[in-house]
What does this fold into?
Amino acid sequence: MINFVGAGPGAKDLITLRGKKLLEKADIIIYAGSLVNPQILNYAKDNCEIYNSAKMTLEEVIDVMVNGEKNNKSVVRLHTGDPSIYGAIKEQMDILDKYNISYDVCPGVSSLFGAAAALKAEYTLPDVSQTVIITRMAGRTSVPEKEEISLLASHNATMVIFLSAGMLEELSKRLIKGGYHADTPAAIVYKATWEDEKVIRTTVEKLSESAKENNIKKTALITVGHFLCSDYERSKLYDPSFTHEFRKGVKP
Ligand code: SAH
It folds into this structure.
């Protein structure tokens, strides 16, 4: 059995209890060395074989999994954040299917949420935005035409942009082209939940300048939208006059 496990955004205690148990039992761990905090590997037992997938091809990763399975070893494939977001897990699962090897997925806390916590923000503020767009700029991996940043920006919804910290000038241009004002609030969250986390509050127009000032080129999320302002409607759910399944409202 192969277990795909989300390691969380960085801090070693932000892995799930289930993920930690799987690491403690694992005979083999293949971890995404570019982003998983190595402190998380301290949960592994002493004789666990550890591989860093940053230096491996898909075929090499699969070889380790297949050999592990043959020898009845318990294998953990440790991904950063949650494996379903830019995790390249589908291609691994599809090959395992061909080998008839079973697997399970243990979710993790995505850096999407690590960043919200670092910002002490709520992405879905009433009357501001009820939608979170998770996207990226095209890099060596292309992005479907209909998901081009300026098209998504036209919604003026909350946006969280992955894998784009090296392309901020172009990102700003596209966000503005799509309909965000140049002075719309934006934030750069570098290494959310790590010890050297940095939170930079800026505007759509100044994203690139702010990143340069702080020497940030990678491992950052860009968040954009008015959820970063303080102007919003309070929630219905906790309004004293609002009745719902668990509480009767009182007229003011
Ligand atoms: N599966 C991961 C994302 C992997 S893609 C998740 O759920 O978080 C890698 C990109 O994620 C990085 O380029 C960066 O944009 C973002 N990222 C990952 N960890 C981060 C962190 N701790 N802080 C800020 N951004 C992070």
